[in-house]
Amino acid sequence: MGRLSAYCFGGLQDDMVVQMIPVKSRLPVPSPRFNIISFTPKPRDFTPHHFSCERRSPAPPEDPNRYNEIELHLIKSGSLIYLFGGEEVRFEPGRLALFWGASPHQLIKSASQVAYDVIKIPLTWFLQCRFPGEFVRPVLHGQAIVDPAPDSQGDIKQFDRWIRNIQSKQEANHRVAQLEMEARLLRMALSMPERPEVRRGKSISTSLGSNQVRRVGQMVAYIAQNYTKQVTVELVSKSAGLHPHYAMSLFRRTLGTTLINCVTQHRISHAQRLLITTDKKIVDVALTVGFNSVSRFNAAFKKATDCSPREYREIHKNANHEFTFSGRIAN
Description:
It is a single chain. By secondary structure, the protein is of the alpha+beta class. The protein has a domain of 197 residues: Jelly Rolls (Sandwich). Helices cover 42% and strands 15% of the residues. A seven-stranded antiparallel beta sheet has the order 2-1-3-9-4-7-10. A three-stranded antiparallel beta sheet has the order 6-5-8. Strand 5 and strand 6 form a beta hairpin. Helix 7 packs across helix 8 and helix 9 crosses helix 10. It is globular.
């Protein structure tokens, strides 16, 4: 299957790191219902990362992983279609798109024959930029954001320049890349159409220090890594070295939602994917994503989607989702 190239830089304080990561080859195993490959296996590495870029094949990787970074995509030809929860999102040529790599998602179709680059942005940096809440909150809730006002030719040239700066050994080039990405993402955020459900929520706090934002990033990462297990406020706060009451307050002030809502959102998004792409029983789906009872799962699912898990599966059974890759579904 070839190799995956990864380039990293650690900002102004860290040395340049360049590495080649081999991809192991193995035969795909067909799923009982769909032939797809998952981008969400059991998490392997949620330690903080630096800015990095990867060259990816239009076919999905043989060894997919979830990461804690924000993934910034820009393809130059063809298209990619991802499944986020129960929603298909198309990434089109020359249009910036981003999502949180820790959120449940699957690449289900590629119409591109050309390798493309992905820039990985540290979650803490993304939060410290203090973009508008209507831009940040959907990303942390597992949604993909596609630029509604693209500048295709300009963005392609700028994206290539960011990659060169990431690969550079000059610290000044690293800083330039960060500043340019922050400005471009802010323009993207300001061009997003307003949504009533977002306007009603609180905005992302702009009065927090970098250490507080880093602690929130640690809590968010812990939730993304452990939401299929028993997650409590005490465990989440401990992961960031905070008192539970302060952790809950800081989390809500920063992200405009609660710790429990964040956990539930991850579980519901994972459940939506399993309901669409597998024949698992409802009770098995509930247990797989972290609920300890079917009744609680049903109540939370209906509150989030306005329908029961069984109804949701029936609706999407007739939606003709087109899964075109072979591989094994990961729980």
